[in-house]
Amino acid sequence: MALAYPGTAYSDLNEILARDAFIAALGDRELEIKVRDRDPTGLDEAFRAAMRVETYLRAGDVGPTGGHDGRQQRYEAQRARQVQQPAEGNARDADAAVRELQQQLQQCKRTQEDMSREMGRLRLLAECRAEHAEPVLRRDGREAAIGRGTVGRAGAGTSGRASGVCYACGDGSHYARECPTR
User: Fold this and answer.
1) Distance CA 142, CA 179 (A)
2) DSSP states of 111-149 as a string?
3) Terminal-to-terminal C-alpha distance of the chain
4) How far, in Å, CA of 45 to CA of 9, rounded?
5) Angstrom distance (rounded) from CA 182 to CA 175
6) Would you kindly state where each structural domain of the chain is located, as residue ranges?
7) 137-166 burial by CB neighbour count: b if 16+ within 10 A, else e?
8) Global pTM?
9) Rounded CA separation 29/35 (Å)
10) Strand 135-137 with 143-145, pairing
11) What is the dihedral of CA 24, 30, 35, 37, to 10 degrees?
């Protein structure tokens, strides 16, 4: 607070915030309530009140054998519960997260298998279509076979010069430059 608001390091607001933070950090609900009942005005007064109350509480917990009976055991049991509860909660949360991730992994595997099957079907369909090329009408109204490189542009199938096929009409008796349909 002193860095955020220069000049307020020793203000009343700073004392109130420090007192409340100290009381909240005591860690013992009973001690915190008894210190708040004394209504300290500042941090120093809250510290002195906490020391007195804690001394009284410890003196009241001393049994006939001289050992601390009730309060220390309650405090240790409370701390043990606080430590165990988050650990158990984290373990439950982790188990739930692992189960969820395993379910998602199984779903992804099923999706991948379905996609692989569909891809195989598409490849088979493409091979079947390539083997059974259907005639297609060209611009000039003549039929030309598609597939197996008999018709088309350079680079799509076999070259026209090597097979003696016209690029324009697909006829094997002339080249495109001599095509009568142009």
Assistant:
1) 13
2) HHHHHHHHHHHHHHHHHHHHHSPPEEE-TTS-EEE-STT
3) 90
4) 18
5) 11
6) 12-61, 133-182
7) eeeeeeebebeeebbbeeeebeebeeeebb
8) 0.35
9) 10
10) antiparallel
11) 110
CA–CA gap between residue 115 and residue 107 (Å, rounded): 12
Interatomic CA distance for residues 38 and 18, integer angstroms: 16
Query: What tens-digit pLDDT sequence spans the chain (182 residues)?
Result: 677 777 776 778 888 888 888 999 988 888 889 999 999 988 889 999 999 988 888 877 655 555 555 666 777 777 777 666 655 566 778 888 899 999 999 999 999 999 999 999 988 888 888 777 555 555 565 555 554 444 444 444 444 445 678 888 888 888 888 888 87
Q: Which helix (H) or strand (E) holds 163?
A: helix 160-163
Helices (H), 3-152: 12-24, 29-37, 43-61, 70-131
- If DSSP codes are grouped into helix, strand and coil, which group holds residue 106? helix
Paired tokens of 47: 């510290």
Q: Tokens 């298998």 identify what position?
A: 113
